[in-house]
Amino acid sequence: MAVIESKVRSASGGQDPAALRDAATTAVRAALTGDPAQQAAANEKAAEALAKAQNIPQDEAKNQVSQYQQQYKETVLKTKEQAKRAADTAAKRVSQGALFGALALLLGALTAFFAGRVSAVTPTVSAGATGV
Q1: What is the percentage of the chain residues whose pLDDT exceeds 90?
Q2: Domain count, the chain
Q3: How far apart are CA 99 and CA 22, in angstroms?
Q4: Which residue of 64, 84, 114, 130 is surrounded by the most CB atoms within 10 Å?
Q5: Closest Cα to residue 43, out of 56, 55, 58?
Q6: Is residue 105 a part of any domain in this protein?
Q7: What is the spatial distance between Cα 67 and Cα 73, in angstroms, rounded to a whole number?
Q8: Using a CB cutoff of 8 Å and minimum separation of 24, what contacts does 101-109 make?
Q9: 21 and 8 Cβ atoms separated by less than 8 Å
Q10: Residue 4's pLDDT band (boundaries 50, 70, 90)?
Q11: Among residues 63, 62, 56, 57, which one has the least CA distance to residue 15?
Q12: What is the pLDDT of residues 84-104, one digit of tens each?
């Protein structure tokens, strides 16, 4: 989103007041992230604001808005894919860690059991000892 905003701001060439650039940036942002039901109106408003800010024809502004939308959609898809891969990798590593932890606990319990059996003292009774 920041890349698209900087393109909109820099395309005006600094000749227009900041208010026009900000209005164009806000309108483009609304067109990209706004409600799909109001997409057509947001696109028109963004094209008008962009045309005013950059002193270009309305058709050229509409083309720029469509390019910005395409770039935004591609970026969103790419980001979603990267997030999915990261989540899958994290889930795999966490499950491996849990498996190794459970295995370590089982081995520890088994070791403790055998260590207790081996080191247990067996009482012996001697024949010459009297308890009185």
Answers
A1: 32
A2: 1
A3: 54
A4: 64
A5: 58
A6: no
A7: 10
A8: none
A9: yes
A10: low
A11: 56
A12: 999 999 999 999 999 999 999
Is residue 33 situated within a structural domain?
Answer: yes
Which one-letter amino acid corresponds to residue 4? I
Mind giving me the DSSP string for 44-94?
Answer: HHHHHHHHHHHT--HHHHHHHHHHHHHHHHHHHHHHHHHHHHHHHHHHHHH
HSE (CB half, 13 Å, CA atoms) of 9?
A: 12
Q: What pLDDT score does 2 carry?
A: 66
Q: Which amino acid is at 105?
A: L
Structure token digits, residue 37: 């039901």
pLDDT 10s digits, 37-70: 777 788 888 888 888 887 889 899 889 888 988 9
Domain coverage including residue 25? 2-84
The reply to whether 35 falls in a domain is yes
- Give the three-class secondary structure for 1: coil
